[in-house]
Amino acid sequence: MVFGRGRKAKQEQLTDTGDTREDAAVDAGAPAEGTAGALRSAGPHDVADIDNQDGYVDLGALLIAPREGLQLRLEVEEATQRVVAVTMDLEGSSLQLQAFAAPRSEGLWDEIREQIGQSVGSQGGQVEEIEGHFGIELVAKLPAGDGSEGYRVARFIGVDGPRWFLRGVLGGDAALDRDAAAGLEELFRQIVVVRGESPMPPRELLQLRLPRDSGVAAPQGAPEFEQPERGPETTQIG
After folding, report:
1. Which of 34-38, 127-131, 137-141, 229-233 has the lowest mean pLDDT?
2. Dist CA 136 CA 4 (whole Å)
3. Which domain, by its residues, includes 208?
4. Less CB within 10 Å around the terminal CB: N or C of the chain?
5. 111-155, pLDDT tens digit by residue?
6. pLDDT tens-digit profile of 88-112?
7. How far apart are CA 14 and CA 107, in angstroms?
8. Which of 59-68, 87-96, 199-208, 217-226 is least confident?
9. Following CA atoms 56, 68, 210, 58 in sequence, which dihedral angle do they give, to the nearest 10 degrees?
10. Structural domain total, the chain
11. pTM
């Protein structure tokens, strides 16, 4: 397995609300715990949902199931050398992943969708909420930015788990084509989030890292880690 680290992606950020309490309240419009649990029953999973971590690629806060043809890119913040995102590349499409701490009793996704919409609108783009396999999703269309009249598209997926929030951003054909997204959506369902027990303020990024060199052979079909020229571009909030 080849390990590499890419430069920091220009990515959507979950901005700090200034409330550092682990169980701080969020919008009253956030989905009830039972609803979120129903949407999450088929994955992504909490580490408490699995018997063991054997066979996964261990990236710290995220465990990734291997698949033939899958490549992973770790996005690194240049100033701190901290891994801030992992991107799955499969069959010409991409899925960028980030996991965040969340309040114990409420979800973050309703509030985050609103923030993404405001950010996209401020950049001259448009957003549309659609019903997807993981509940409400957001399709964002932004001006291409290269002087052309075209636009670039990203599809945002959000899943509220027990004290964590997992955000995915689909790019390439998968942003608009459900058939093209099928492989990455299945991998998204198989993700395991390792929240940890330490108190953390809501919206704090859960720590990602390069896999440890344990001397043990990688799982069969484990993805390669490549160093990209640049990371996937999504929208900036803040």
Report:
1. 229-233
2. 34
3. 6-12+22-225
4. C
5. 999 999 999 999 999 999 999 999 999 999 998 876 677 889 999
6. 999 999 999 999 999 988 899 999 9
7. 13
8. 217-226
9. 0
10. 1
11. 0.76
- pLDDT at residue 169, rounded to an integer: 97
Task: Report CA-CA distances (Å) from 12 to 97, 115, 236, 238.
Answer: 11, 10, 4, 9
* Beta strands across the sheet bearing 45-46: 45-46, 192-193, 62-64, 57-58
Give the Cα separation of 208 and 33 in Å (integer).
Answer: 26
Is the pLDDT assigned to residue 1 strictly greater than 60?
A: no
Task: Please check whether residue 237 lies inside any domain of the structure.
Answer: no
Backbone angles phi, psi at 189, to 5 degrees: -65, -30
Q: What is the C-alpha separation between 82 and 36, in angstroms, rounded?
A: 30
Distance of CA 203 to the CA centre of its chain: 13
Task: Give the Cα separation of 21 and 200 in Å (integer).
Answer: 8
With CA atoms as reference, report the closest residue to 225 among 131, 88, 54, 102.
88
Q: How far is CA 194 from CA 23, 32, 47, 84, 142, in A?
A: 18, 22, 5, 15, 33
Q: Residue by residue, what is the 3-state secondary structure of 60-112? A: ECEEECCCCCCEEEEEEECCCCEEEEEEEEECCEEEEEEEEECCCCCCCHHHH
Separation CA 14–CA 204 (nearest Å): 8
Task: Kindly state whether residue 180 falls inside one of the protein's structural domains.
Answer: yes
Residue 19 DSSP label: -
